[in-house]
Amino acid sequence: MKVLVTGAAGFIGFHISRRLLERGDGVRGLLMPEEADRGLEAEGMEIARGDLTDPASIVGVADGCHKVIHCANRTIDWGTRRQFYSIGVDGTRNLMEECAGKVERFVYLSSVAAYGLGVHMRDFDEYIPLVKTGIHYGDAKAEAEQLVGSYAGKGAFEATVIRPANVTGPGSVWVREILDVMHKGPFPLMDGGKWSASLIYVENLVDGILAAMDAEAARGRTYNLRDDYRVTWGEYLRWLAGLVGKKPAGSLPFGLAWKLGWIVQTLYLPLKVRPPITAQAVGIMGRDLDISNRRAKEELGWSTRVSWDEARSAIERWVREEYKPPR
Fold first, then answer.
1. 3-class SS of residue 107
2. Is 26 helix (H, G, I), strand (E, B) or coil?
3. pLDDT tens-digit series, residues 136-184
4. For residue 316, what pLDDT is reported?
């Protein structure tokens, strides 16, 4: 079997590609024209170069592939609507046009953010309707999910949607980006850091993605994925900051932080630099996002394989050996 992986050299795509190669599958990784392959070609991955926002550059990318795992996306928490939608929605549409009638299964990597950030999501299951809130990342994910369903409904391919919670691991945005921000200035907790961090370790996420790609029962299904260990944002951020001699700076109540996030990101947008606070970050760290993972357990036999202690050890090792603070 050959699998096309978009964003193959990104954080999640890299782990997916390596696991597929390890189990003997053929892998074609779609990378941007100048993007480093992180050693994946040497491990056996076929490299394809193209830009999902340019349909002509991806012609033929799915030829000979049986399944697709679509990971490519803008993952940072700030930017214009165009920046998020050009890759997240238009790029997804371009990819599906190229895959239609060629591949058996299209696996789309969405996000818990598609439910609409700014609310508690404890025990949200896959039947909860998606809501657009003006946070471009989540809105683009919700719209892309609808597109995927539309193409599958027209018989272009089978489709499966994965909605992970907050993906952590060595080099994750929930490690690297947080440490970078802490080095640049104060990083307060939201609501005292009392809410669950709603984490999923990247290897556990890959377990679920591959199980969903393989399972006949996953055809046309959506799966929430979140690890079962309970770690609050206060616990997570104090531990992570401590690895580099930092600590969170106080706390902001959710209501104030939510309003501040919208105002500050709007003021910073013309400057094209990272805002010190965003609505997306507040909506994630200031609410309980412990979505239900029951369906993945029952239908895929998925469970948390890598424990929090094991995940934490791997992250600590990465910070110690590979993390470089911003200059």
1. strand
2. strand
3. 999 999 999 999 999 999 999 999 999 999 999 999 999 999 999 999 8
4. 98
Q: How much is the pTM?
A: 0.97
- Name the β-bridge partners of 106: 68, 159
Q: Do 19 and 204 meet the contact criterion of CB atoms below 8 Å apart?
A: no
Q: Where are the domains of the chain?
A: 2-168+198-230+289-306
For 101-123, what is each residue's pLDDT tens digit? 999 999 999 999 999 999 999 99
DSSP state of 89: I
Residue with tokens 């100048």: 34
Which of these, 54, 69, 89, lies nearest to 14 by C-alpha position? 69
Does the structural domain 2-168+198-230+289-306 have CATH classification 3.40.50.720?
A: yes
Q: Say how far residue 169 (Cα) sits from the centre of its chain.
A: 12
For residue 115, give the DSSP letter: G
Residue 187: predicted pLDDT: 92
Residue keyed to tokens 């599906």:
96
